[in-house]
Amino acid sequence: MTDFFKKKTIRNTFKQFHQTASTKKIIAFGASDFLRLISLNYKDLKLDQYITYVADNNTSKQGGNIAINGCDKPIIPPHKLLEMNEKDIAILITSDVYAYEIYRQLEDMFKEKDIDIFVLSLMISEHVDDISDKYLSADTQNTDHMIPKIIHYFWFSGEEKTGLTAKCIESWKRACPEYELKEWNADNYDVTVNPFAHEAFKHKKWAYVSDYARLDVVYKYGGIYLDLDVVLFKKLDALLHHDFFAGFGPIRDIEAAAFGARQGCPVVGEMLHLYEGRKFDPGISMTLLNLQPILLDRFFEKKGFEINGRYQSRDGITLYPKDLFSAKNWFTGAYEMTETALGVHECAGGWVGQGGKSSKQIKMEGTLKLMEICEMQQGDDYG
What is the pLDDT of residues 268-282, one digit of tens each? Predict the structure, then answer.
């Protein structure tokens, strides 16, 4: 192992982060939407309290501020880090896509200096909030079926279903042979019912059309909605007694790719109201912060639920831990906790363009490189 890897130790646990933040200033590196989102969904990390500055390579951001859980933090150029005493600071890399590149940049900047580094994506990747299995075991004892055995899905493009799409549908048939599979498309769903959905349809942004439409059909008919990149491992009967259920996603986001409700469920009706007056602008890039799961995070937060990745059930609403349908590491693409999962959302990314998919690949490759460095450090008793 090089001397750099020995000196630039990556620390990944929440406990280590809190311990370090109690004695050192935390400087974030990466004024990203990822940082803003994680500050909202991981309030237990206290990023708004710990972070003093945010370094960023983008000169257009430097001199401005970034809101971290409602607290504005100044954005500084990276060279300002060299003016600080490295013994008094720890650096938290807060870009998910370019975490590895930032780590290498810090290598060049600090050379032989000893400094603690945390990588936010690795911290989240290795942290488990809760597991669904114990709750599902209890739910199998409840045979009251509020939710009908219908799986709703949307296919607006009219193209032949191949590859992952076909694989997913076949998995539904195997896992839930007694369920009706209801396909909605341009012939049997009225996309003009909502302006947001209609505009998205006109621009062939099918995933955004279904943001509204999935809520609409589940409200009208009841049943379970699945994205066409959700593979099922097991039957869904243990979920049918709920008024409404959903699971957390990989970054404590409400997993909108798989949810279910009884017909006319009030909370689904409230979710539909979120799209009243909401405009779809094809010229604006949709980011992490304005995707449907994040919209639902804030919705359920306002209803008194904690966005903490843990099982919660009250007032007819049940939220499960992420392994229910998100047993895939968002940062590496590796399958995890599949023994407790009912299925897995493959996160194929129908809502992003080619650039987004390229960024996803950069993120995964960089995360794997950082994990390899961590393993090397731990092998030599550094970490």
Answer: 999 999 999 888 888
Structure tokens at 360: 């996803």
Q: Any bridge partners for residue 371, and if so which?
A: none
As given in the structure block, the two tokens for residue 224 are 């379970």
**Hey, what CATH class is 3-127 in?**
alpha beta
Pairing status of strand 244-248 against strand 254-261: antiparallel
DSSP for 182-218, written as a single string: EEE-TTTS-GGGSHHHHHHHHTT-HHHHHHHHHHHHH
Cβ contact 1:377 at 8 Å: yes
Q: Is 79 exposed, middle or buried (0-12, 13-18, 19+ CB in 10 A)?
A: exposed
Domains 3-127 and 133-352 alike in fold: no
Q: Under DSSP, is residue 338 helix (H, G, I), strand (E, B) or coil?
A: coil
Note the pTM of the prediction, 2 decimals: 0.90
Q: How far is CA 151 from CA 18, 107, 173, 349, in A?
A: 43, 51, 10, 21
pLDDT at 201 over 60: yes
Could you name the CATH architecture of 133-352? Answer: Alpha-Beta Complex (3.90)
Cα–Cα distance, 354 to 358 (Å, whole number): 6
* Alpha helices by DSSP H, the chain: 3-7, 14-21, 33-41, 47-50, 99-110, 120-125, 133-139, 163-175, 195-202, 206-221, 266-273, 292-302, 354-379
Domain ranges of the chain: 3-127, 133-352
* Contacts (Cβ under 8 Å, ≥6 apart) of 144: 241
Tokens of 177: 């042979």
